[in-house]
Structures are given as C-alpha cells and as structure tokens.
Amino acid sequence: MDNMRRWKKDDVEELRRLVEGKQSWQVIAAELKRSVDAVRMKAKRLGLSVVVDRGRGSTTTNDLPEELPSVEEALKVLARVLKAFDQPGLEMSEVQRLQAMVSTIRTYEGMLANYMRYREIEKRLVGLEAKYARLVREKA
C-alpha cells in the first residue's frame, strides 16, 4: 500500500481530459505514469469509460475465397499432410506445423458440416415464411 500514489485533483482532471479525447487505456496510463489497471479502476469509479474507435490490427489478410473449400479438397490437403509425416528426419517445427494443419482441417470439416446443416435449416425457414405469407394473403 505504500507504493500506491494518491490521485491528485490535477491527475483526475487530466484523466477526464484524456478520456474525453478518446485516448486508449495504454496512452492514458503512460501519460499519467500509472498502470493500466489503476487508470481503469479510477475511471470506473468516476463513471468514465474509454471508447476507442480503431481497426483491429492483424497480420493476416481478409481475402476470402468466393466459395468454401469442399470436404474433398480438405481431405486432399490432409492426405498430403499425412504423407509428409512419413518423411524421416522432420524437425520439430515442421511436425508442429503439420499437426496444426491436421487440427485446422478437422475443425474446418466440423464447421463445414454445421454450416451445411444451417443452410438447410435456413432454406426450410425461408420456405415456411413464404408458405405462411401465402396463407395469410389467402385468408385476408
């Protein structure tokens, strides 16, 4: 408790100014020379919230294919991965990469199956909505 600095009136005013300026928690903490947790706690007690409108940073691209890869394509990749496991002298990093590929393919296959079921349910729902609308029109 000895190493905790008390919030001075100037610090609180600076906190309010930075929050109104839509600065991130990290920037505010650096400005006030306090931890992010301390700044968040004080802001919460004061009824302040930080909303920073910024895009999410990512090292991956969002280029999606026109169509989802088929189960057959996923199985072909899996077959190549299994064949690669047969090679002698694989380094640990390559084994981990191959294991990640197997895991990804298994996840994809499960999600694709769910997606196909959802599409079928959606198709049925659209048909039922059309049928319901037709019945309502006929009754009116």
Provide a brief overview of the structure.
With 140 residues, the chain is an all-alpha fold. The chain has helices at 9-20, 25-32, 36-46, 71-85, 92-139.
Order of helices and strands: HHHHH
Structural class designation? mainly alpha
**How far from one another are the termini?**
74 Å
- Evaluate the radius of gyration: 28 Å
Q: Shape, please?
A: flat
- What low-confidence regions span 5 or more consecutive residues with pLDDT below 50? none
Q: How many beta-strand segments?
A: 0
Q: What is the helix fraction of residues, given as a range?
A: 55-70%
The whole-number mean of residue pLDDT values reads 85
Task: Note the beta-strand portion.
Answer: under 5%
Structural domain tally? 2
What summary fits the major beta sheet?
none
What count of helical segments does DSSP give? 5
